[in-house]
Amino acid sequence: MTFTATLHGLLLGCFVLLTGPALAQTAAPAPASAATVAPKKQLQAVRITEAIKLDGLLDEAAWQQAPVASDFIQQRPNPGVPERHKTEVRVLYDDNNLYIGAVMHDSSPDSILREMTARDQFGNSDLFCIFLDTYHDQLNGYNFGVTPAGVQYDARYSPAGGEDFNWNAVWDARTSIRGTDWVAELRIPYSAIRFSRAPEQLWGLNFARQRKWDNAQFFWNEVKPAVNGFVNQWGDLRGIRDVQPPLRLSLTPYVSGYVNHNPLNAEGTRRTTTSFNGGADVKWGINESFTLDATLVPDFGQVQSDNQVLNLSPFEVQFAENRQFFTEGTELFSKGNLFYSRRVGATPIGFYGLKAGADEKIVRNPSESQLLNATKVSGRTKNGLGIGLFNAVSKEMRATILNTETGEEREVTTQPLSNYNIAVLDQSLKNNSYVSLINTNVTRAGSTYDANVTGGLFRFNDKKNEYALDGSLVYSRRRGQVFGKEQEVSDQDGYKYTVGVGKISGNFTWDVNHGIESDSYNPNDLGILFGNNNVTQRLGVAYRKYQPFWKVNNMAFFGQVGHALLYKPTRYQSLYFYNGFNTTFTKSFLQIGYDLTYNAKTHDFFEPRTSPLGEYFVQVPAYTDFVAFLNSDTRKQFSYGLNAGIQHYAQDERLNRPRRTRYSFGAYPRYRVNNHLTFRYSLDWSQSNHQIGYVNGGLRDNEPLDQPFLGQVLLGRRDVSTVSNVLSVAYTFTNRMSFTLRTRHYTSTVRYADFTTLQPGGHETPADYQRPRDNTYNAFNVDAVYSWWFAPGSQISLVWKNANSPDLQANEFTPLYFRNLTNTINTPHNNSVSVKVLYYLDYLAFRKRRA
């Protein structure tokens, strides 16, 4: 991931990138090209023998004896300018820890912004952080940061995962404000990082500071936004000698208890149930390079609820991953985008196909597969070879069907015992390059089909890190029988390849890409692909102005043209042209921009849901899609984001249809009451008029399709109105204790005007179809979370979750929003209250206490 992409994320307020190694300062280097890596600074770490008290004061004599890293260089909003308010950083070490002491000078205490937030969130706050590349491969690194309020955050960097803020380590920090300065003191145990057994370490190093008062970021070793890469722009840390990677062994057991109330449970069954769970996470440093992470009998009941939506598309909905075990330390497994972690513990493959017979009803049908365990081993050798192994096992899932006459129950398997496995080899090369090999495998008990995907990836940069060649080749294979249909075999082999070349550094960049996904390519048992059978090619260009000029801080233009064919048979699909622009003003820090896309007439082969592809397609008229957005200054007590869009279609002359249109609007205000309490609200609204879409899939339970339309593709002209409201409240008591409340109401209303049957070649004929298909879908969730990190790595969490049952309202057409909201609130809701306690047990700390 390029650092320019990181900068764009920073401007959007998603996260703050700050880095910088410290060094005993040398004379300032001569000016260099904006697309050339700055000379590397060096800092000498000092060994200590006396203990350091972590209090944010830096009053031990050892701090005064260490070389100082200073003379930071601004990275935004004005790259290359020396800092005006000095930053001074020192590094100490002993046999067990690395210590970092930093003093951030400022003009006044009021200039030091320090909003209190939960861990890994920055808010409206200053920031200091240290970056470490412990194998000095200039590709992979660690980030440890702290705000003046003592809020900690950590992250990992890799070519595959970019900035991974889901990664968490056990370390500590203290801060203080002294006059016009603020001070940060960090202690990073060697058990939190990985490094070699070399007698003398050479680590990549950078420090960074964010001064929120003027929205400025500074790096100790200059990081140029026009240079491709981030870790390759760090300096060096020297002087760490005779330290050994410690035995990294920790156990985090948990206990949890739940009280669930489900008013929809079948008659004769308990509607309020309780459950108690126990398990553990284990972390073991196999050696100085590799770590094993395992979760035994995991409990994910407290993760944030999914944002359920009404899906009218031919493709599945991709949900965010909120389970910590699957979000942290997975950068190797993300290579090639072949791993979609929500497949592990997903809805059983027979869940939707379960049917009750005559005089029967389904009384239990679990919607999630239960995981028995999950394990991952990952690391990187001193020669830059990354190795990752992942394995998870889910138990056999069964549904229960009750005979209403006899009272007898029978069980039906909805998913067999399943094993999920990933193996990755990733070799780092010179010039920020790499080659990778990844294999994913799903093995199911019995005759149900197994799946295997193998892919090779590469990226080669030139010596100047100015141009790059990249690509991939992936092969997928399925063998076995379709679940529940022993007479149907699922044997299938397919492939995918991509190749691209481009200019990756400088103000002006470009890339050309080509790819093919065969008609039988299918990675979806452990990955996600929305549609195969494609041949695509794309040309992209971009120009970014990083230096402030006139009244703006920066500016970026983007352009792209893309073309797609059906792979088999070879037929035209689509052609598009894209232009985008964004800029941030100098004084107000108001960001504005737009995205403009022109799509030529499209042949949609996926909307008809027919197989094989090629004969049937829906004709989509040419259209223009325009979206404009603006984001206000996030330093203000009240800030907001706004966007508005319109899709305007060409006239569809067939069947004398009205012109299609789509309008959208989004508003995202945020009000920070004080440094502890913040309210956030988001509104997303869209209105599609005269949309043409597939209808057969809209049947209600046990409702047969009209006989005259059996075997035909039925399309409908419809208006779709969708509104999503999310209100969040966050109160942070201390930097280790917080409370959050999130409520979401989503409603989508569909109204049909007329129907047609689709003929070969994209032709449509009017259909005398009378059955009503209008419906409204509502989803409502409440997630309330109290969290207290009472010790490093140890947490108590109390969670209340409330959710309606959207399927109950799928048949009721209700176009009025507030009536929908009232109906949704008044329908039966499932409620869950849970308490979970995790306690971090570190072998090294236990051994010290025993000694």
Automatic annotation (TrEMBL):
Keywords: Signal. It comes from the Bacteria. Residues 245-848 form the DUF5916 domain. Residues 55-209 form the Carbohydrate-binding domain. One of its GO terms (biological process) is carbohydrate catabolic process. GO terms for molecular function: carbohydrate binding; hydrolase activity, hydrolyzing O-glycosyl compounds. Residues 1-24 form the signal peptide. It holds the Pfam family DUF5916. This is Uncharacterized protein. The lineage of its organism: Bacteria, Pseudomonadati, Bacteroidota, Cytophagia, Cytophagales.
